[in-house]
């Protein structure tokens, strides 16, 4: 099973930007459906963005136009570029491959101050 490690979280300011990275190992992700999921305190997990092996993307309405998911299969990495950050983007962000029953990273905390 693929192993996923997220990085790039931290403290951001409202209106600012952060970029999350998800480095995969053990298997190549070139044929994998990849996604980012977030969970805020006291809330259910929310699917933020997904990208197919062919590069088709889908976004939650809450991040559409602000976040961009991309993949670099040569480097076995998926990214989430987050612009125009809002305090409500504060959450732990998880990288996922192949859906709920696939592989998950350990998560990276994103905190957005107003």
Supply the key terms.
114 residues, mainly beta, seven-stranded mixed β-sheet, 11 strands, 0% helix, globular
Q: How would you characterize the overall build of this protein?
A:
By secondary structure, the chain is mainly β. A hairpin with a 6-residue loop joins strand 4 (34-39) and strand 5. It starts with a strand and ends with a strand. It contains no helices and eleven strands. The strands form two sheets. Strands 2, 4, 5, 6, 9, 10 and 11 form a seven-stranded mixed sheet that branches. 0% of the residues lie in helices and 52% in strands.
Number of E-state strands: 11
Radius of gyration (Å): 13 Å
Helical content stands at under 10%
The SSE order reads: EEEEEEEEEEE
- C-alpha geometry: globular
Average predicted local confidence, pLDDT: 96
The largest pleated sheet is described as:
7 strands, mixed
Oligomeric assembly = single chain
Number of helices: 0
Q: Please report which band the strand proportion falls in: under 5%, 5-15%, 15-25%, 25-35%, 35-45% or over 45%.
A: over 45%
Head-to-tail CA distance between termini: 39 Å
Low-confidence blocks of residues: none
Structural class: mainly beta
What is this structure's SSE topology?
Blueprint: E1 3-7, E2 10-13, E3 18-25, E4 34-39, E5 46-51, E6 57-59, E7 67-72, E8 77-82, E9 91-97, E10 103-104, E11 108-113
Parallel strand pairs: 2-11
Antiparallel strand pairs: 1-3, 3-8, 4-5, 4-9, 5-6, 7-8, 9-10, 9-11
């Amino acid at each position: 099973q693929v192993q996923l490690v997220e990085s790039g979280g931290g403290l951001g300011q409202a209106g600012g930007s952060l970029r999350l990275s998800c480095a995969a190992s053990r298997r190549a992700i070139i044929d994998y459906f990849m996604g980012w999921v977030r969970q805020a305190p006291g809330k259910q997990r929310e699917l933020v963005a997904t990208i197919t092996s062919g590069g088709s993307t889908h976004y939650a309405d809450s991040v559409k136009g602000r976040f961009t998911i991309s993949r670099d299969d040569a480097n076995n990495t998926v990214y989430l570029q987050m612009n125009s950050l809002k305090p409500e983007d504060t959450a732990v962000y998880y990288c996922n491959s192949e859906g709920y029953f696939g592989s998950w990273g350990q998560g990276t905390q994103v905190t957005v101050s107003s």
